[in-house]
Structure formats: structure tokens, C-alpha cells
Amino acid sequence: MVGSECPGPAPAGTGPRNRSRGTAALLVVAALAAGGLADVGHVVGPGENLFTLARKYLTTPQEIARANHIADPNLILIGMNLRIPAGPVPPVPQPAPAPPIPLPAPQVVTYTVKPGDNLTAIAVHYGVTPTALAALNGITRLNLVQVGKVLRIPVPAPATVESLLTKYATTYKVEVPLIKALAWQESGWQQQVISDTGAVGVMQIMPETGRFTGEIILQRMVNTANLEHNVEAGVAFFAYLVRQAKGDVQLAVAGYYQGLRSVRQKGMQADTKRYVANVMALRQRFSPSRGAPQGAGSS
């Protein structure tokens, strides 16, 4: 229990006056610690020097010597009354900012021309223009491409992908960091990614989802191989899921991965729970303030 020890005999020199002086010194130190404004009085004890006192009071030997008109900082006397100048209050350490999410490294995508291919079809498949594809590969006649030729495909830069994600998240009133997180989880912002199940592009849109989004939500044709079509369709579809989930963004994220009907009927599968957790963590990483996200659909 605090304060239960029996007091022993008082050491020499600790009578009532010395105890009062010690108590007063402690109060001054406390005032300094609280406000950082008052100087401190200190009586030099055996073994002390200006360097040990400077460390104790968060100041410098030079400042103590200057305040007490000491010519030789290496020579002070036991029992000497010193005035310790108040040092600056040390700054409160701030938490280190989270490291930025690295953008994917530029990739060189190649395609070997097969019988029946033409430049326009290849360009449409990869979401680029035939002119850009021809220019990158030194092709002068757009209607003539050699079978077996290895074409270099211009991959959209991550900055372009990010600007499109921001544009369409704003258009469809969905939280921008959440859309960026969803796209990063799906593809790492890579348009050329095609999954084993046929999901395409940045937003990894399945063919049936692309058709539904085009016919029902956007009411126009969607080419998921085109970068801008892919991003807009994915964001528009996610906004639709948020509305269906009555603003529950975690349910909408789960629905994007597993299917909203399946989640409602069977609950989130184990891999869906991991997916949602990853997206929510990325959402915080993409949030500029790392605070409460702003915008429609925030939970």
C-alpha cells in the first residue's frame, strides 16, 4: 500500500528548514515542467558539475554558466546556489506518417499477332487507339499487320488511372478513397489484367456485369477493354451496390466481390471477409487526412 513504510531516522542536514527548501525546489521544478517558463534554483551537491546539471534540467552548460556568471564551466563549488535557466519544453514526438502506397511499376505488355488479327481489333481489346498502337510499333499502314509480329502495347500510366477513378467517383457520388482502394485490391490499377474467370481491367469487370451496367445503369454500350469505359462502369456498378445496400459500404464491397444476393442469402464467405478487410484498410491509406472519410456512402 502506498505510504505504508515506517519512516527511519532522518539523515544529517535534513531538518525542517532543509526539507522546506527541498520541497520548494520540487515545486519550482514542477512549475517548470508544467509551464516551461520559470528558472530553477539548485544547490550544487557532491559529484555534480555543469554537464550533469544541464542534462538534468534540459539546458546547456553554457546557459547555466552564463546565468550564474561562471567564468570556468569546469569549476563549481559544492553548496553553491545556482540559477538554472528554463530550457525549452521538448517537442512532443509526432507519429510517423504512414508510408505512401507505391504505384505499380510501369509494365511492358506485348502481343503476338495471330492469323485473323487486325490492328483495330487488337487496339480495341487493350483499350487503346489503333493510331497509338501503330505509332508505338512503327506501323505505317493500319490495315496491314504481319502475323507473328510482336506488338508493344501502350499501358495506361497509374496517374491516368487515378485521375479517372477520382473523376468517376465524384461523378457517381462515391467516396474517392474507397473507390481507389477497391480498384487497387482488384487489379493494382492495371488495365491489362484479365483474371482466370474472365474479369477484365482496372475494376475487374465480369462480362455479365459489364452488360448489366451498360444496359441497366448507363444505358449505353460498355467496352470493358477500354480503360475509361472500365473505370466508369466499375464505379457506376459499385454506386448501384451502395444504393442497394442502403449506404452500407462494407456490404457493398462484399457484394462487389461475392455478389450482393449471395452475401444476403449466405453471409460473407471467409475470403470475402478478408477482401472487405483489405479494402477498408486501403481506404484509410488512400484517405488524405487519414481521418473520417468524407462523401456519400461513408459508413
3D architecture notes:
There is one protein chain. A two-stranded antiparallel sheet has the order 1-2. It has a two-stranded antiparallel ribbon with strand order 3-4. The model is unreliable at 1-37 and 290-299 (pLDDT under 50). It has 299 residues and is mainly alpha-helical. It folds into 3 domains: 16-84, Membrane-bound Lytic Murein Transglycosylase D, Chain A (Roll), CATH 3.10.350; 109-153, Membrane-bound Lytic Murein Transglycosylase D, Chain A; 158-286, Lysozyme (Orthogonal Bundle). It is built from 12 helices and 4 strands; from the N terminus they run αβααββααβααααααα.
Q: What characteristics describe this protein?
A:
single chain; 299 residues; mainly alpha; Membrane-bound Lytic Murein Transglycosylase D, Chain A; Lysozyme; two-stranded antiparallel sheet; 12 helices; 5% strand; disordered N terminus; disordered C terminus
- Whole-number mean pLDDT: 78
User: What structural class do the secondary elements suggest?
Assistant: mainly alpha
Name of the CATH first level of the largest domain: Mainly Alpha
Number of helices: 12
The best one-word shape is elongated
Q: Rg, please?
A: 35 Å
Classify the oligomer. single chain
The major sheet is characterized as: 2 strands, antiparallel
Low-pLDDT stretches are: 1-37, 290-299
The rounded distance between the terminal residues' Cα atoms is 48 Å
At the third CATH level, what is the topology name of the largest domain? Lysozyme
H/E element string? HEHHEEHHEHHHHHHH
Query: Strand arrangement, largest sheet?
Result: 1-2
CATH architecture identity of the largest domain: Orthogonal Bundle
Beta percentage is: 5-15%
Q: Compute the number of structural domains.
A: 3
Instruction: Give helix % range.
Output: 40-55%
Q: State the total count of DSSP E strands.
A: 4
